[in-house]
Amino acid sequence: MSLEEGISLPYTKGKIDVEKPLDSESDYSRTFKPGRPSTPSQSAARSATGLLMHYKKGILILATLLFLSFFTSVPLIPHFKTSSPKVVLILAANEGGGVLKWKGPQEWSVERSSIANKQQYAKTHGYGLTIKDMTIKKRYSHEWRESWEKVDILKETMRQFPDAEWFWWLDLHTYIMEPQISLEEHFLNDLQNQTYRTLENFNPLGLPVDLPYVDYNKPIDLIITQDCGGFNLGSFLIRRSDWSEMLLDYWWDPAMYEQMHMQWEHKEQDALESLYSTQAWIRERTAFLPLRKINAFPPGACSDKAKDPQYFFQIHDFVINMAGCEYGRDCWGEMEHYKALSKKLHLNWWKFW
Amino acid sequence: MFGPGSLKPKYGSKKGGVLPYFSGHARLHFHSRKNLAILITAAIVLVYFFNPLGALGITFSIFSRRNVPVYPRGHPLTSTEIIEVDTKYIYPPIEHAQLLRELTMKELVKEHKYRDADFPDIERYEIYSLNKDDDPDPIKQRLKEDEENQLLELVKAKNYFKNQDKIVYKGKGGSYPEVVIVTTINFDKYSMEALARIVQNRVDYAHAHGYGIYVRWSQEFLPALNSFSYMQIEEKEKWTRLFATRAAMFAFPKAKWFWYLDEDALILDSSVDILNSVLQPSTLNSLLLREQPIIPPSGIIKTYKNTKADAIKLILVQSPSKVETTAFMVKNDDVGKSLLQGWCDKLFVSYSNFPFGPDSAITHILQWHPFFLSKTGIVPTNLFASIHPETEVPPPTDGSRTDFTLYHEGDFVASWWGCKKVECEKIMNKYYAKIASSKA
């Protein structure tokens, strides 16, 4: 050290820059030459301006297109809109709560976990999220109409997010196990191949397979799943369209419900099954996903079909739905289990503790 | 201390020589390469994002895969087969009316009796079309029928009756009918001559304007009604109107509008073009009755004030006291079809609190479902369904508008209902004479 400091020879120092003395030398002897860049930053600026000047027309056209794309909605030009989400998650909170019972600490915990999970997922992929209160209230003049809020909530959310296309309904007792997967890559970008639209191969309810006038070339506007007991609306998607507007309007009809309210225990679900089995227009735009794709069950649900693997969660399934856990199963225990499992599955390799 | 890269050669890092490049030459290459890169980038951007070939159906996407599932095509009510015809006047052979009457409707369909496990005491039945027994191979079936048809007239009538459902119009591009007139005819109600006149009346009108007609026996829709007794009840039989209109939409997939006109009606003035006089959006816009009560004259639910004619998919008329389905029009698009199907749901057909069948059902639907209401227009009745003055119509409570709906000399269409069999034919003949005299 002392040697280095003592001797003033430039080339013996630890950190010498070979270029530097040369540069300062050239600085010293530099004369102004027009057209030649003097410093690197100046030269970069100059070449950039040069490029700009050279591609004047091209850049003007590009700028115009970008402007039209971002700030207007003229046709024939793709519009990249980042502000409004394309997909909105609807989370039904407080199910069955309200006038019937008080919420205990475990129920609060389940709700917190479920909401945090959806929030994180929506944030990761830029989706919208709305949390809707499903408390039972005396809200309608017609007593049959109670607990048919699903339809109203969907309508309300569609008004709330006027630019969103898909609405993903999730019950409270669901957990997104693979939050890194976006819905687009999971199935939305490849709907025709991922879904099935006829009941030939899987028809747990024995609904009529063939219906007159059904045209399966229509786009898919409703994506649901079937569990061991028929349609499951714990996790489903609906697309904004004339069709869905009409379905939401038609779904609950007093004249139909008056005749069927004894049979339709599951309300919307049964009504939809009935509409699906009689009306071609409903069938045309309804598609099914395999249950495990967006709605996998834990071992406790569908207990009479416990040996059938198509219903039950396996590692790396997308969403778990602890359906029916409030009827004699431990919602909190299940939620904590799957929460921990999801965390474990997504540990980073360098975090080994 | 002298790590790799900290000492750089003076003329760039390229190996194999320290002399600078020949300046002019290098710049030349540099420019051409840069242009190429820009061109390629531009091409990729153009193809991927702006997709100019999209209009031709060509898409460039790394996501598209080949194995798109194949689903069955749409088929008519009672069969998976279709029979294509070139004529745009589709109607059953009227000369079979007498034979069909002899056969009775029970012979024309298949009845399946069964007992519900939950209610073993009650015997139920399901009505199927005779098409259910068809050979899966349509060619074999056809040969079989050709043979049968030569042997016995009764069997022939039966075969024609069941096959009527399969008939669809094989459209040719240029002259596709924009409007199709739909009628259901009942061989138990009118004589053969009267039925022939009714159908001929539609054909004449359609011919004058290049439209199509679609006529079915109302008994053909027994499988949809699923009850023999419904055919005896006039109000229940009305449901066949909707089933026939839906079948017509399948038979003429590219027509724009369907005009259902009951058999109890005649078109008196074939110079009126329904497309110009009602269906043109600009015309319809001025004809729509806005804020018109669904149940006249003082119902609480009214049609919307600001409905645009373009949004209208269903056009209805009213008698002084209720909506009438003796004539209505449906637009042939997804919403129009859905409205019609939603209207004739099984649960509505069987509902006991709908005294007027489909009339009550649509009244109910319009009052409960704003989507339906926003797509439905009510127009003055004399546009295409003026009511025969002797028809029994309960008058409105305030005495208004009665005159408006009744038939006047020179009206486009006259319709009557609620008559006894012979009486109906008399009224029909009276109006038919009017047409004949105006022609002469």
From TrEMBL, chain A:
Domain of life assignment: Eukaryota
Transmembrane segments: 59-77
One GO cellular component term: Golgi membrane
One protein family per Pfam: Glyco_transf_34
Keywords on record: Glycosyltransferase, Membrane, Transferase, Transmembrane, Transmembrane helix
GO MF annotations, alphabetized: glycosyltransferase activity
A Gene Ontology biological process term: protein N-linked glycosylation
Stretches the record annotates as Disordered: 25-44
Family in the record: Belongs to the glycosyltransferase 34 family.
Protein name: Alpha-1,6-mannosyltransferase
Species for this entry: Scheffersomyces spartinae
Gene symbol of the encoding locus: MNN10
UniProtKB/TrEMBL annotation, chain B:
GO biological processes: protein N-linked glycosylation
Coiled-coil positions: none
Annotated Gene3D superfamilies: Spore Coat Polysaccharide Biosynthesis Protein SpsA, Chain A (3.90.550.10)
UniProt GO cellular component terms: mannan polymerase complex
GO terms of molecular function: alpha-1,6-mannosyltransferase activity
Domain of life: Eukaryota
Pfam families the record matches: Glyco_transf_34 (PF05637)
InterPro entries reported in the protein's UniProt record: Glyco_trans_34, Nucleotide-diphossugar_trans
Annotated transmembrane regions: 36-63
Keyword Iron: no
Keyword Transmembrane helix: yes
Keywords from the UniProt entry: Glycosyltransferase, Membrane, Transferase, Transmembrane, Transmembrane helix
Family: Belongs to the glycosyltransferase 34 family.
Official protein name in the record: Uncharacterized protein
Organism: Scheffersomyces spartinae
